[in-house]
Amino acid sequence: MTLTDYHTHLRPDDPDASPKEFFTERNLVRYVERAAERDIGELGFAEHVYRFQESLTVWRHPLWLENAVDRLDDYVEFILQMREAGYPVKLGLELDFVPGRESELRSIVEERPFDYVIGSVHFIADRAVDHEDYDAWRLAEPDQVWREYFSTLASAAASGLFDVLAHPDLVKVWGAGRPAPDSKLRTFYELAIDAIAAADLAIEVSTAGLRKPVAELYPSRELLSMCVEVGKPISLSSDAHEPDQIGYGYDQALETLREVGVDQIAVFDRRKRREEELG
Ligand SMILES: [Zn+2]
Ligand SMILES: [Zn+2]
To answer: Cα torsion for 147, 64, 116, 33, to the nearest 10°?
Structure first.
């Protein structure tokens, strides 16, 4: 029986949160201990690519320019050292999909010993679906935001860059805080489901949505069912940005997974996926 928490961050999103303060044995141990307390046998870190200087070879968005301070290899080296010291942790990366920059994205991950790469879509063009400073809704109608989000998600799935597709309906993050689209949500999911079906990747069930205004799991039950119907393996994570969030909301996630018939969970080593019994 296996539980995973692969999509976690060692530090908060604050641009001032430095590796010196957070990429330390003392901080990592807090995550390891919390995972053990919650029976999570597979713990991994997936720092945001845009915190690292190397991301600027991919994209020079203002948010990235503000955040791209650290060196990716220092992070990689830190996790490998912790592993050598005996901590059972996996090395991952949360890599934003940037359309048209596939080869730059590929060279960031290919040269490094990641256990898994989590692909996420936070932006449609240069507007964010989940960041108020670059708000996508200010320039477009809700239906257009949802359409572009799921079209971009389809391209991310089809890119072959990723082992896991993160928080698949992140576009709903604000809940009632943004206008809802007129069309049925399924019409947007359908923009991505064929690409998801054809892609060799796992779909992330993320409890982060429970902590956001929408107060729901990512993805919605309907989208999750569609992914399960087309045979996608499932990855389970909290998107923790602090130790207390490790395994957050897993009771609810496990109940939902059981209800849609999922009893296996995806596990990764050096970008090879296998499935283990979920529990
Ligand atoms: Zn994300
Ligand atoms: Zn994340």
So the answer is: -110
User: How far apart, in whole angstroms, are the C-alpha atoms of residue 221 and residue 73?
Assistant: 38
Map residue 135 onto helix, strand or coil.
Answer: strand
Ligand nearest to the CA of 97: 1
Size (the chain), residues: 279
Ligand nearest to the Cα of 165, by number? 1
How close is the Cα of 85 to the center of ligand 1, in Å? Answer: 29
Question: 103 alpha carbon to ligand 2 midpoint, in Å?
Answer: 22
d(CA 49, CA 161): 14
Give the tens place of pLDDT for each residue, 52-108: 999 999 999 999 999 999 999 999 999 999 999 999 999 999 999 999 999 999 999
CA of 167 to the centre of ligand 1 (A): 7
By C-alpha distance, which of 186, 168, 279 is closest to 232? 168
| Percent of the chain whose pLDDT exceeds 70 | 100
